[in-house]
Design goal:
Distance between the termini: 39 Å
Order of helices and strands: HHHEHEHEEHEHEE
Radius of gyration: 18 Å
Number of domains: 1
CATH class: Alpha Beta
Strand content: 15-25%
CATH architecture: 3-Layer(aba) Sandwich
């Protein structure tokens, strides 16, 4: 049944908030954001992703390797005043995202978003802090070293697990690599094989509870670097939701 009565929808929304029943993340208001963010929505489908992850009002969420804060801003609307989003980035990201972050966080426009500048040896995430952790197009970056870049999985993931509450969720979104390529293409193409991610995280104490094909693109044959104009912003991406054991 479709509800087209706006006053009725407003009453229903108020009732859900007053009774503590979580409003579905797919209903979040995505307006009032930058033109670049709105354009990205078309290929990233953030409302559907956040709904898939089960984020709700009052949650504390970590946006790990959160870049310019695209997801942090949307998550801030979902968790509301009673929740918090921690936007973590290492110094190596600043030349690429500093200006975007400055604009996004200017004048305390996102009061429930905390920027955390930290490095792999000590991320300062705390213990049993987060209901959910988002790692979007960043897991593959933990499997190679480069000049000025050392964010290794063996250093990072134990801290991630420790920072999650019991039963907490970890959502991984990344660019898919070719079958049997594992982590071979992480530096050259910025891609990682889905089965490798599943196996690696399950060994570290996570259970894969569900996956989504919402960002799947069968026209991407996984052979191009993700910045190639032919696939940029529309790569074949896997979406995996894990739970801390």
């Amino acid at each position: 049944m479709l509800l087209n009565n706006k006053p009725l929808l407003s009453i229903i929304g108020t009732f859900l908030m007053l009774t503590g029943i979580p409003i579905q993340a797919t209903n979040i208001n995505l307006s009032g954001r930058s033109e670049a963010d709105m354009k990205r929505d078309l290929t990233s489908k953030p409302a559907e992703i956040i709904h898939f992850a089960g984020v709700k009002e009052g949650d504390k969420v970590l946006d790990l390797l959160g870049g310019g804060g695209y997801y942090s801003e949307i998550l801030s609307r979902v968790v509301g005043n009673k929740g918090q989003v921690v936007l973590q980035i290492p110094k190596a990201y600043l030349p690429y995202v500093d200006k975007e972050l400055e604009q996004r966080l200017a004048y305390n426009r996102l009061p429930n978003v905390k920027k955390l500048l930290s490095e792999a040896p000590e991320l300062n995430l705390g213990t049993n802090q987060f209901d959910s952790i988002f790692l979007v197009m960043g897991y593959h970056d933990m499997f190679f070293e480069d000049k000025g870049w050392d964010f290794g999985e063996k250093m990072v993931m134990p801290q991630v697990i420790k920072s999650l509450k019991s039963g907490g969720k970890l959502i991984i979104i990344d660019h898919a690599a070719q079958k049997d390529h594992g982590i071979t293409d992480t530096k050259t193409l910025h891609r990682i094989e889905k089965s490798f991610v599943e196996s690696s995280l399950e060994k570290q104490g996570f259970n894969l509870i569900k996956e989504s094909t919402i960002l799947k693109n069968t026209t991407d044959d996984h052979s191009l670097i993700v910045f190639d104009p032919k696939v940029k912003s529309k790569t074949d991406r896997f979406v995996l939701l894990f739970q801390k054991q």
